[in-house]
From TrEMBL:
One of its GO terms (biological process) is gibberellin biosynthetic process. The keyword ATP-binding does not apply. It catalyses: gibberellin A12 + 2 2-oxoglutarate + 3 O2 + H(+) = gibberellin A9 + 2 succinate + 3 CO2 + 2 H2O. SUPFAM superfamilies: Clavaminate synthase-like. Belongs to the iron/ascorbate-dependent oxidoreductase family. GA20OX subfamily. Gene3D superfamilies: B-lactam Antibiotic, Isopenicillin N Synthase, Chain (2.60.120.330). Residues 197-299 form the Fe2OG dioxygenase domain. Signal peptide: none annotated. This is Putative ent-kaurene synthase. The keyword Metal-binding applies. Pathway: Hormone biosynthesis; Plant hormone biosynthesis; gibberellin biosynthesis. Its cofactor is L-ascorbate. Keywords: Iron, Metal-binding, Oxidoreductase.
Length: 355
């Protein structure tokens, strides 16, 4: 396969300028001049079952989710050595020569595999990044991530599969705890959403943002709201995650021991619109590659996504039609590039396509 047909950021970054299809509209490129006041929540008390600490944490979560839907968590129980191993394995993959990465190339219509700038999907506003995405579910005893790496990348990546299997298990466990806190913060039973997510197939995505010769024109990931439910992200120490709050870009400063948590569109619907799925982006810079590990918690694809009855009753109106995650995922993969208007456009599409 002629690898020159494929986007190879390591090649591109050696050119004097970025190609026009990587240049973003200036309104997406405004600088951030301040740090996002995202609360840093210590989960230790909650994870130990301390009720007072649980209520205190839930209150801080409610405050941030009513405002912008981003918060950071420390003492989250995910081993820092495991996070470090995940970065090491991710670096080993992205440092492969392009023809090796193409062995894992994402096929048309699939979420899974290697992608270079999504060049197969979009013709303009290409993100300055390479990604590796794979599925995680714990519905069977099979180590689905280890199997993915083995079947896609072969023996050389057996260890990567083991590391990311453990990483995703830790992410799923933490995400289910965060969902419990979200339920408490909304005033519904803490296990209200458990069944919806328990058997879901979540998305693990490794983001690799090569340094860029014109960082003021390109974006690692363009402005968007995550269509998923809850995102748990670790970013390396380079910095570049910005959130659009109060009509300005505000940066989320990297904290090595913290995980960044944000609400996605699906959880906005599950909160009847109370909790914000906020616009965010990933900047690139001239000198340092940047990496992030994003775990996207998703509901079981065919279960109905609807806000708890008590919340709808209290609010007086039901903000969104019932839908399934497979409906919304199909919409983002086939018809609509996720941005800040995904949810309203999705609900219009859903209602218009109902028989
Ligand atoms: C369901 C998903 C679609 C994306 C990956 C997950 C959750 C985040 C979405 C995404 C990152 C939002 C920005 C645009 C996007 C195309 C990307 O830059 O990768 C989105 C992902 C996707 O469609 O593959
Ligand atoms: O890399 C980051 O900091 C953010 C990435 C992101 O928002 C995403 O992959 O959805
Ligand atoms: Fe995102």
């Amino acid at each position: 396969m002629d690898s020159s047909l494929f986007f190879d950021p390591s090649l591109l970054k050696s050119q004097p300028t970025v190609p026009l299809n990587f240049v973003w509209p200036k309104e997406c490129l405004e600088d951030s001049h301040e740090e996002l006041q995202a609360p840093v929540l210590d989960l230790d008390g909650f994870l130990r079952g301390d009720n007072e600490a649980t209520l205190h944490t839930a209150n801080l979560i409610r405050k941030s989710c009513l405002s912008h839907g981003f918060f950071q968590v420390i003492n989250h129980g995910v081993d820092s050595a495991l996070i470090r191993e995940a970065y090491d394995q991710m670096d080993a993959f992205f440092n492969l020569p392009i023809h090796r990465k193409l062995n894992a190339l994402k096929t048309q219509g699939s979420l899974w595999g290697y992608s270079g700038a999504h060049a197969d999907r979009f013709a303009s506003k290409l993100p300055w990044k390479e990604t590796l995405s794979f599925p995680f579910h714990d519905n069977s005893l099979d180590p689905v991530v280890t199997n993915y790496f083995h079947s896609t990348l072969g023996e050389d990546f057996q260890q990567a599969g083991v590391v990311f299997q453990k990483y995703c298990e830790a992410m799923k466990g933490l995400a289910m705890k965060v969902v419990e806190l979200l339920a408490i913060s909304l005033g519904v039973d803490r296990l209200h959403y458990k069944d919806l997510f328990e058997e879901g197939c979540s998305i693990m995505r490794c983001n690799y943002y090569p340094s860029c010769q014109q960082p003021s024109l390109a974006l690692g990931t363009g402005p968007h709201c995550d269509p998923t439910s809850v995102t748990i992200l670790h970013q390396d120490d380079v910095g570049g995650l910005d959130v659009f709050v109060d009509k300005k870009w505000q940066t989320v400063k990297p904290r090595p021991n913290a995980l960044v948590v944000n609400i996605g569109d699906t959880f906005t619907a599950l909160s009847n619109g109370r909790y914000k799925s906020c616009l965010h982006r990933a900047m690139v810079n001239e000198y340092k590659d940047r990496r992030s590990l994003a775990f996207f918690l998703c509901p079981k694809e065919d279960k109905v996504v609807r806000a708890p009855k008590d919340i709808v009753l209290k609010d007086g109106t039901k903000q969104y039609p019932d839908f399934t995650w497979s409906n919304l995922l199909e919409f983002t993969q086939k018809y609509y590039r996720a941005d800040e208007d995904t949810l309203p456009n999705f609900t219009k599409w859903l209602i218009s396509s109902k028989p």
